[in-house]
Amino acid sequence: MHIRRTAPRPRFGRIAVAGLLAGLAAAAQAELPVEHNRIEPLAPATAERIYLTDPVMPHLVDGRVVVIDGRKMKRLAVIGSGFSALTALSPDRQWLYVATTYHSRLQRGERTDVVEVYRTDDLTFSHEIVIPPKHAQGLPIRALMQPSADGRFLLIQNATPATSVTVVDTQARKVTAEIANPGCWGAIPWPAAALRFSSICGDGTVQTFDLDASGASAGASRSARFFDPDQDPVFMQYSLSGSTMTLLSFHGTVHRITLDGAAPAFAPTWNFVSDADRRQGWRPGGFQLFEVIGDRMVVGMHAKGAEGTHKNPAEQLWTIDLAAKQRVARTPGFGTLSMTRTREATPKLVLLSGLDNTLRVLDPARPASMRKPLAVSEPMGETPVYLETH
Fold this sequence. Notes:
Blueprint: H1 12-29, E1 49-54, E2 63-69, E3 74-89, E4 95-103, E5 111-119, E6 125-131, E7 145-147, E8 153-159, E9 163-169, E10 174-180, E11 184-190, E12 193-201, E13 206-211, E14 217-222, E15 239-241, E16 244-248, E17 253-258, E18 265-266, E19 270-271, H2 275-279, E20 283-284, E21 290-293, E22 296-302, E23 316-321, E24 326-332, E25 336-341, E26 349-353, E27 359-362, E28 375-376, E29 386-389
Antiparallel strand pairs: 1-2, 1-29, 2-3, 3-4, 4-5, 5-6, 7-8, 8-9, 9-10, 11-12, 12-13, 13-14, 15-16, 16-17, 17-18, 17-19, 20-22, 21-22, 22-23, 23-24, 25-26, 26-27, 27-28
């Protein structure tokens, strides 16, 4: 006969449970403080405030705009932006415009396109304007939606896939026109002509459109060909300095166009990629891949470039002297996908890394210092692509 002995069970487990139950009973009898929700006012916006548009590609119906204090690199707010939104700020920086799409059953059902308008002082929703269900649904870039120079009209690129531009009167809160721009892309407002905008066309020309005082179409004109779309196409990213628009080609050709007077005026083109660098395959790449600050341009560059690498993050940042027409510095690229400048007397450069979604602030006035950022953020958003500063 086999006798099995068992050790006596410890009593401290029962004692601990009893003590826990007694503690919970005492806590239940104690009166807990009442919690109150509150809204903390935002500090006044500074030139360092950043608006980061994130289409959140893993779940596109749930886009966001992340608002960031660029001085402290602190997230201030997240604004929902629906499906494949375009964003822009008014010229006076008082309003944030979000052109987006909603479906009645989230990912299906009746489609409604609207421009949502938010106050930038407290980031609260103000109102919406219904627009035709045609706005371009793609990764946001500056040329797809911009306000006119005086802020009255909002210009929105459409694609059905036929191309046109919706004109929205932000004061009357209504659509005033849909202007066809076949074979062309983008709505680039003229800086000193509130009733004029231009598009870049696939045949290498610029088409310029005029509005009347009510926002209706008042005619159009087309320029001579200024680039060869088959040999060296241009990026749709552009940078404005006064009335001068800078465009950049896939192979590093600089195009400077003055948007003033009776028609666009084209400066002679030139290329900043040397023969030695071209043999190594150095090319521009990214979304907001360059920015002009004063008489210098900073552009994201990658080596071993080929067909289809034009969106590659930057391996290096090249600083180009636009007056001397030569490179003056090459510094680390930080995987930069997009960049923009701050709107202050001595602008800073804000970078978005396509490698880890972090933001960096650089001082472009001292290219040698650009090896070490002034500030670095934690990762922001999920798949952010577009930057704008206050």
